[in-house]
Automatic annotation (TrEMBL):
GO terms for molecular function: glutamate decarboxylase activity; pyridoxal phosphate binding. It comes from the Eukaryota. Gene3D superfamilies: 3.90.1150.170, Type I PLP-dependent aspartate aminotransferase-like (Major domain) (3.40.640.10). This is Glutamate decarboxylase 2. Its EC number is 4.1.1.15. The modification N6-(pyridoxal phosphate)lysine is found at K304. Pfam families: Pyridoxal_deC.
Length: 508
């Protein structure tokens, strides 16, 4: 593709990229330094926009250095905060490529290569999910929340086709109207409730299904709740099962849930935004047998466990894109001219958006670069590390200030635990939660480690706030995790020296 045609804009790009290549790789090198902060202190930044002339290349590198210096450092193995981590280097190249092409994946002709790749990657993921090869397809959305929302909208319009034109007012005027209801576990991500808000279902019609002690949806309770809803004149139509809940990493029992859905004609969606890749790529006894194929739709976020840069989320549809087009398509003729009849249709009309990034290119490129085995190994290693870390926490000896206690055996790659102040008790106490929040805040304020906390309700009651560390980055090692536990102990020591009663709390 080399060309000798004079081109000023190409020269400008070349010069910028040459410098960027150095600045970016230096940034990654310094971010991986054992002393590098994870949350740098934000000094006074000059964020003004020049009124007249811009600063050009001469000034921009200072700005980029400033941004890098002030950014949260996801490349550090001590970034153990949310459910994503550093991208892979090829992921960064993929992100740059998508920016370079600036193709819009709404209509085929605007991004033929993007469309072909999206189609291929969607089918490949669907194959891993063991969806029927002749029908299944997938599309990217800007995040798991949007994928989940689209699944709900498709299910809603399939069950209540009159909504597309008449809306709720039109449907209710029909006289036969029954209240649409959806079901999701008490541990599901909030995006399901947001989707219910966006889809006009309303929060009061989202039924929260209790979980078992491990945080998995109780399928018997689901059946009872669905049947109660029908008996009370409601119209259940959608169940969301989670593959890897946000906090405990639980996998809802899909086989049992699928039976309830089949018995009552409900759409079964699986939100695998977090744990989906574990089900797709795992040969693990537990997760490798997870039957995603029993779902009607399935969300998976390569931007979480697979190291693709934010954002890259797929919604896979067992019956292909036709139900999406039917539910959401309008066929605006000024934009959609029918795609390329021999190759692929335009896909944008199947979504609630217009312009779309060809995010699938990022996953495709990374998958070609690394191969499937890389993901199998990476995910197996993350899972093994989570189990080893849980063992480390359980086996760690107490200090004079407290002891360690695991919340539960990890079911995906999140590890949840407490540093229990004082002597351990048989049941979790409110002071445990107070201690977690205090320790987390102080530790994070020092900038060297970034950890997070969460809480959940179990059948026996709410748990006090605990540490939740998602293990995602391949750079994290057992040594990293041992040093985080030591840092928590040191922080407990420092806080107690400042105030010996600091961990005493009267509420969680
Ligand atoms: C289970 C689950 N579903 C959905 C989401 C939302 O995904 P996104 O942040 O890509 O919108 C998350 C985010 O953490 C999640 O854990």
């Amino acid at each position: 593709m080399e060309s000798t045609v004079p081109c000023k804009v190409a020269d400008e790009l070349e010069e910028l990229l040459r410098e960027a290549s150095q600045v970016f790789s230096d940034y990654v090198r310094s971010s991986r330094d054992p002393q590098a902060p994870v949350i740098p202190r934000i000094e006074k930044l000059n964020l003004t926009i020049p009124e007249e002339d811009g600063m050009g290349a001469a000034g921009i590198w200072d700005d980029i250095q400033t941004i890098c210096g002030a950014a949260t450092n996801t490349w550090s193995e001590r970034f153990l905060y949310k459910l994503y981590a550093s991208p892979t280097p090829i992921g960064v190249v993929g992100e740059a490529l998508v920016g370079l092409l600036n193709n819009n994946a709404h209509v085929f002709q605007a991004s033929p290569i993007g469309a072909l790749i999206e189609d291929k990657v969607g089918r490949q993921l669907a194959e891993l999910a063991k969806f029927p090869a002749d029908t299944a397809a997938g599309l990217t959305f800007p995040g798991g929340s949007y994928s989940n929302m689209h699944a709900l909208m498709v299910a809603r319009n399939r069950r209540f086709p009159e909504l597309k034109r008449g809306g709720f007012a039109g449907a209710m005027a029909g006289g036969e109207w029954r209240r649409p209801m959806i079901f999701t576990s008490a541990h599901a991500h909030y995006s399901i409730e947001k989707a219910a808000v966006a889809a006009g279902i309303g929060l009061d019609n989202v039924v929260s299904v209790p979980t078992d002690a491990a945080g998995r949806m109780d399928s018997h309770a689901l059946r009872v709740l669905v049947e109660q809803a029908i008996a009370n004149g409601g119209a259940p139509f959608f169940v969301n099962a989670t593959a890897g809940t946000t906090v405990l990493g639980a996998f809802d029992p899909i086989d049992e849930i699928a039976v309830v859905c089949a018995d009552h004609g409900l759409w079964l969606h699986v939100d695998g935004s977090w744990g989906g890749p574990l089900a797709l790529f795992s040969s693990d006894e537990e997760l490798g047998r997870y039957r995603v194929d029993r779902a009607d739709s399935f969300t998976v976020n390569p931007h979480k466990l697979m190291g693709v840069p934010l954002q890259c989320s797929f919604l896979l549809m067992r019956d292909g894109l036709a139900p999406m087009r039917e539910a959401l398509g309008l066929g605006a003729s000024y934009l959609f001219h029918g795609g390329s009849p021999d190759v692929l249709d335009d896909v944008g009309d199947a979504t609630m958006g217009c312009g779309r990034r060809p995010d699938a290119i990022k996953l495709w490129l990374a998958w070609r670069y690394h191969g499937t085995q890389y993901y199998r190994r990476r995910l197996a290693a993350a899972r093994r590390l989570a189990l080893d870390f849980a063992d480390m926490v359980s086996a760690r000896p107490p200090t004079a200030l407290g002891c360690w206690r695991l919340v539960a055996r990890p079911q995906s790659t999140c590890v949840c635990f407490w540093f229990v102040p004082g002597q351990p008790h048989s049941a979790p106490l409110p002071s445990w939660g107070h201690a977690t929040r205090l320790l987390c805040a102080r530790l994070n304020s020092l900038g060297h480690v970034l950890v997070d906390y969460a809480t959940v309700d179990l059948p026996a009651g709410p748990l006090p706030t605990f540490f939740r560390l998602p293990l995602n980055s391949p750079h994290v090692t057992k040594e990293t995790l041992a040093s985080v536990l030591a840092a928590i102990e040191q922080t407990a020591q420092a806080l107690t020296e400042e105030d010996p009663r600091c961990f005493v709390a009267d509420s969680s």
